[in-house]
Amino acid sequence: MDAAQWDERYRASAGGVWATQPPAVVREIAATLSPGTAIDVATGDGRTALWLAGRGWACTGIDFSSAGLALAAARPGGDAVTWTTADVHDWEPAAPVDLVVSCYLHLPDSAAAVARIADWVAPGGTLVVLGHDVENIAAGGHGPTDPTILYTPELLRGALDERFRIERCERVTRTSADAELRDGHPTAAVDTLLHAVRE
């Protein structure tokens, strides 16, 4: 989907597309970190950026959908985040940050996109990437069904260079209690998680 299609989807939604909380595993990792500067890549309607800002992070949320960002900015706490309409392929932060988070960014060049956002992590900072795994198709979980844009641990591990120490890179199962969509979904989903620290 392109930016115009996502704008349409956000405008048609009743208050937002995604769940109000970030995925549980993202909350679990971020909760262990001292707040600093952060970028939420493909923030959508802002759930992860708002959660981080609420815990003291100076957060920038970027997305190519201006409609999604308008929903995010209108939420409680929305004025605590810097919302930026931008494409991950073109945008650059003014300076590296302490935390870069990307949830469910699926592109034809996903490995290259992950390598690019990894460059935004400051030395000593953390990168967290979570997305639908290719095994999610067979599992019947919610999400894209095009295997060429889905993740595997091998794909995400291979996107990083020697500057990063990988803490976790594995498949994780997300239950319906940790639904991605605002109105929930009944099935479990198989995701790939990458948690890495820049040396």
How would you portray this structure in words?
The chain is an alpha/beta fold and 199 residues long. It has a single domain, classed as Rossmann fold (3-Layer(aba) Sandwich). The protein has helices at residues 3-12, 24-30, 47-53, 66-73, 110-118, 135-139, 153-158, and strands at residues 37-41, 58-63, 82-85, 97-103, 121-132, 164-174, 189-198. A seven-stranded mixed sheet has the order 3-2-1-4-5-7-6, with helices on both faces. The longest helix has 10 residues, at 3-12. The chain starts with a helix and ends with a strand. Keywords: Transferase. InterPro entries: Methyltransf_25, SAM-dependent_MTases_sf.
Number of strands: 7
Q: Predict the CATH topology.
A: Rossmann fold
Provide the spatial order of strands within the biggest beta sheet: 3-2-1-4-5-7-6
Please work out how many helical segments DSSP would assign: 7
Strand content: 25-35%
- Percentage of residues assigned to helices: 25-40%
Category from helices, strands and their pairing: alpha/beta
Q: What is the CA-based Rg, rounded?
A: 15 Å
What letter string, H or E per element, gives the SSE order? HHEHEHEEHEHHEE
Shape: globular
- What is the top-level CATH class? Alpha Beta
What is the CATH superfamily?
Vaccinia Virus protein VP39
CATH 2nd-level architecture: 3-Layer(aba) Sandwich
Question: Number of folding domains?
Answer: 1
Residue runs with pLDDT of under 50 for 5 or more positions: none
